[in-house]
Design a protein that fits this description.
DUF6471, DUF6471 domain-containing protein
Length: 74
């Protein structure tokens, strides 16, 4: 049986964490600066719509948001 992978899962996880914390993209953009990501709201949104950002960027987002544990039910 072939397993499928939702390509939007990383993007959706970031969005869910933003929503959970009551934060907006502009807040995350600021939180990412200490991690070496100098983005604008527009460049962040472009990165999200490309469907190809790196695992490193995903991890930076999770760390910037203060995520300590991540449960991936795949």
């Amino acid at each position: 049986m072939e397993k499928s992978f939702d390509e939007n899962m990383p993007k959706n996880l970031i969005k869910a964490e933003l929503d959970r914390r009551g934060l907006k993209v502009k807040d995350l953009v600021e939180l990412l600066k200490p991690y070496g990501e100098n983005l604008t709201d527009k460049s962040y949104n472009n990165k999200m719509t490309r469907k190809g950002f790196s695992a490193v960027f995903f991890c930076k987002c999770m760390m910037a948001l203060g995520v300590k544990n991540l449960n991936l039910e795949i």
